[in-house]
Request: fold
Amino acid sequence: MCAVRARAICTAISPTMRDQYGQEGRTDTLRKGQTLVWEGEYLHLAAIVVAGVLKLSISLSDGREQIVGVVYPADFIGRPFGDRSQVSATALTDAQVCIFPQTAFDRLLFEQPDFGRRLLEHTLEELNRTRRGMLLLGRKSAPERIASFLLEISRRLGESQPQPQAALDSFELPLDRQQIADLLGLTIETVSRQLSAMRAAGLIRLPGRRTLEILDRRQLLELSGDHLENL
Reply:
């Protein structure tokens, strides 16, 4: 039984079609740092994340990398009817992905209308996250950006648990501080300084290099500038 089927786009596939297309797919393991899809390459696959966390990134003309998104279990990687990938998808942690040939994935969209609707819902959810990201980068201060990021990752990691939760209070950060800085449009010094300030204020604990504990979620939410109903 797939651990993310109930939340992934494949939940809309009928059992008969799932068995049929399951023979065309495979599950692959990615090691931390391994790239699944490279920016600019011809798309030959579509993937659903089963476990682990991956980053989506774009290369700038001077060789720098810009992280433009993070994908979690049950998230979709790919582009229906696409030509070339617009981003690189690289494992931030050891990960498992369910991979289908692009041709089989595109064919399934025609044969299973409910699957297409579920993919549209997923795309709209991702669009909403992108809009929140634009607000975060365009209007929020450094403390607000980091607080919003911690709350978002807490929610997404909670949703990805075998027994889904609204949010996690203790988790391993899949990104290091430089990657967090790149994602949030900050410097690594600013990220380190703000995390230290949040720790000193009793909002979070940092018991390990990547381990983070949220001690005061309400205060962290107030700092983020987000709505209280998102607590």
